[in-house]
């Protein structure tokens, strides 16, 4: 049936519909009883709750249902992700002609067959579009952004993740024609530079979320432009923007006091100066991702915890300098903490887990705790975690002092917890008389 629905989406029936009017079809004596008993307005309302596959099925039942199912009011929100391998440009063009001004939200995530030409037709026909997801549409270029800028002035949410042909010219066009934009995802668009960011933020000053993961050419100057114009910003993702330093983060913090979510993972040059700026300027911070920021220390996280009491999620993977002191401060000052990653933080011990478990967040809020490769963690830590009644997931890969017995005892107290752990095979004894190196079973196989 999925294949049938996809063929129907490609067909001209989606555009042309029946030559008869709805009133003419409903007056036909051959129509079903339901069409005679229920007003067409009520039937249309029922159809408005159906998904795209069901609408395509209904459109093939009868002439009356074809008109009802293909009424533009039923196609305000469309997600074609499940059809991504089948969707071609013609499908997008057909949908745009059928939906017209009704369409508010369209997801073409993963539809690699869609290109600039079809999206130009879409932009011309669907000028009320507010939410557009083009994640993974690798064929599109700056031309698509020009079309959106020219025809789609109401656009608020745009996802261009992995659209690798996008350049600064796209951002200039968007800034001129899509000034209502609130969310923009440019992750892995690695041709973007500070000039494109400057053009964007000058025109789109209402941006609330800007995702720039993997935009490896961005430097501190780009963040200075964001600070100057985007005072409404609440979410910023700079993952793997490895050229960013403390100077850029300080600029952002000073200009974006409403910031609630910040991802700095992979920004390996950052120091405690960035944490200090966050602590002093962004008291509403809820999410901080700082994985692989190996220069951050307890001092920076202590100041952060004492000033940002709304923290809910923290990713501190490979922040190798932090100790139990950071956990003590989070336990005291961050009662809303729900998810914490400490993977590869090899200085964390059972004592730090004790403080976390005995805190307000441990008793009430903590849902996810990741302790992979925390080599000092033992079964004692698991005993402490038994007081975390809300814990849902615990990661213990390569915690060499944690045993199966310890996990079993904890799960007896917290049966709903999903524990992920790995126990390396026991190293076999050296063969009698052998002088070769001792290898575990995995290495022997390799």
UniProtKB/TrEMBL annotation:
The gene is FBXL2. It is found in: Membrane. The keyword Ubl conjugation applies. One of its GO terms (biological process) is protein ubiquitination. Residues 32-78 form the F-box domain. It comes from Acinonyx jubatus (Cheetah). GO terms for cellular component: cytoplasm; membrane. This is F-box/LRR-repeat protein 2. It is a lipid-anchor.
